[in-house]
Design goal:
The chain has about 400 residues and is α/β, with parallel strands linked by helices. It has 2 domains: about 120 residues, Aspartate Aminotransferase, domain 1, CATH 3.90.1150.10; about 230 residues, Aspartate Aminotransferase, domain 2 (3-Layer(aba) Sandwich), CATH 3.40.640. The protein is built from 14 helices and 14 strands. The strands form 4 sheets. A 7-stranded mixed beta sheet has the order 2-10-9-6-5-3-4, sandwiched between helices. Strands 11-12-14 form a 3-stranded antiparallel beta sheet. Helix 1 packs antiparallel against helix 8 and helix 2 packs across helix 8. The N and C termini lie close together (about 10 Å). The site of ligand T4K has 23 residues, from helix 3 and helix 4.
Length: about 400
């Protein structure tokens, strides 16, 4: 509902914006508001960049950030790139993947696009309803003679079934890589995510736990692969006037690396803030029938960057109804990853029956909503969001009828 379509307030109606009350928030509360580190430190770095007139091409700040990330993850190589999608594209190409590659459909569309962009067919496997990550059994069912690899996605920063996927890849002679876009700062037991498979790719997009405005990183222990990736992300240059490989321009600029270093300095504070927000949401939603907050397994370290709620069949309102209620209150909840990559183009046209093979993905796509968190969201905001949700659920029949009327009026 747009603000111009604000309905008239009804006397005696629940205290909700869909009934014409003032929204709970004057300004929109977004999922993915950037976390921004110490401004003075960033500006000092920016001045240094300008003073030295070294703006990109593996400058001082890119080198420093690569070395700090490699150390944090516990790998030998980190190659910073212009964004996570380009990182995936480069890695897929460097590993010489072809034919078919198995991926989840419950992911951001970039995971599949990075394959399709190179005319490799993404084959969608189903997920485990408990972790929201690839189900190894479904992966096995999707393997054909044309399969060359598996891309696991650590959805919400929760680790994939790494051991089982590694065993499948080994047995079937497939390359295993991970889209770790959500998983910076997360671990699998004692070992950091980023250190598994052939290599892993982080995203440092503005909306991610740690941002470099736009950016990403490929991390690996494989020296040969790292060497190839370094050439590939810089046109194949191996020195002045010497191109020895086909490449593109996937480099990160100095200003992005300066932002990354600044944000890395405050990474632990951001994770602590996210964890506190996660706890606050947990308190708000505990005991509400049908609402389940996705938790982090205590055996692994989470970064808590996403607050993910599944709205089950027993809830008094559906996920979509709750999202409508929240949007009216200026809480811009997101339906990640609705409707599922298999239902987006071109995949929907290529594989019109894919949904029949992905029952758990289908269910989750209809149930998940992601709520605002990060350093821009306070405990008070979360209490207010909880209040809105409880008020809406308590008045579910009236809310449902009201939403129907509003939909009919705007049709
Ligand atoms: N693999 C996975 C599993 C991923 O989730 C992603 C990215 C990738 C690969 C690819 O990595 P990158 O190539 O992006 O590095 C967002 C992000 O654009 C995308 O990076 C992210 N995943 C995805 C989950 O979410 P959108 O289109 O849903 O949201 P967007 O960009 O409109 O931002 C969300 C909200 O955040 C906005 O409504 C407002 C707020 N926002 C956004 C920006 C950019 C701000 O407040 N400030 C900002 O600067 O995709």
């Amino acid at each position: 509902m747009k603000p111009s379509e604000k309905p008239q307030s009804e006397p005696g109606a629940p205290d909700l914006a869909v009934f014409g009350r003032s929204p709970a928030f004057a300004d929109a509360l977004h999922v993915g508001r950037p976390n921004i580190g110490d401004r003075d430190r960033f500006l000092a770095r920016l001045n240094d960049i300008l003073d030295r007139r070294w703006l990109t091409n593996h400058g001082k700040y890119v080198i420093e950030l690569e070395s700090r990330i490699a150390e944090l993850i516990g790998v030998r190589h980190c190659i910073l790139v212009s964004n996570g999608t380009v990182g995936l594209e480069l890695l897929i190409r460097a590993l010489d993947l072809r034919g078919e590659v198995i991926v989840p459909a419950f992911t951001f569309v970039a995971t599949a696009h990075a394959l399709q962009w190179q005319e490799i067919t993404p084959v969608f496997a189903d997920i485990d309803s408990a972790t929201h990550c690839l189900d190894p059994e479904s992966v096995e069912h999707m393997i054909t003679p044309r399969t060359t690899g598996i891309i696991g996605v650590h959805v919400w920063g929760r680790p994939c079934a790494i051991e089982r996927l590694t065993a499948i890849a080994r047995e079937r002679n497939l390359k295993l890589l991970f889209d770790a876009a959500h998983a910076f700062g997360c671990s699998y037991g004692e070992r950091m995510l980023g250190s598994f498979g052939e290599a892993e790719v982080f995203s440092f997009h503005a909306t991610k736990l740690m941002n470099t405005f736009e950016g990403g990183a490929i991390v690996t222990d494989n020296d040969q692969l790292a060497g190839k990736l370094r050439l590939m992300h810089n046109f194949g240059f191996a020195g002045y006037d010497r191109v020895i490989y086909v490449g593109t321009n996937g480099k990160m600029s100095e200003v992005c690396a300066a932002m990354g270093l600044t944000n890395l300095d405050s990474l632990e504070d951001v994770i602590r803030c996210n964890e506190a927000n996660h706890r606050a949401y947990r308190e708000q939603f505990s005991g509400i029938r049908g609402l389940e907050l996705a938790l982090h397994d205590e055996r692994h370290r989470g970064n808590y960057q996403y607050v993910v709620i599944t709205v089950g069949g027993e809830a008094a309102l559906t996920r979509d109804e709750l999202v409508e209620v929240l949007h009216a209150e200026n809480v811009i909840a997101r339906r990640y990853f609705y409707p599922g990559v298999h239902r987006m183009e071109p995949y929907r046209s290529y594989f019109p029956h894919a949904h029949l093979l992905l029952p758990r993905t289908e269910r989750l796509c209809a149930q998940v909503m992601v709520l605002p968190t990060g350093t821009a969201v306070s405990a008070e905001d979360i209490a207010r969001i909880g209040g809105v949700m409880r008020a809406a659920l308590a008045a579910a029949p009236a809310v449902r009828a009201r939403l129907k009327t509003l939909r009919e009026q705007s049709a």
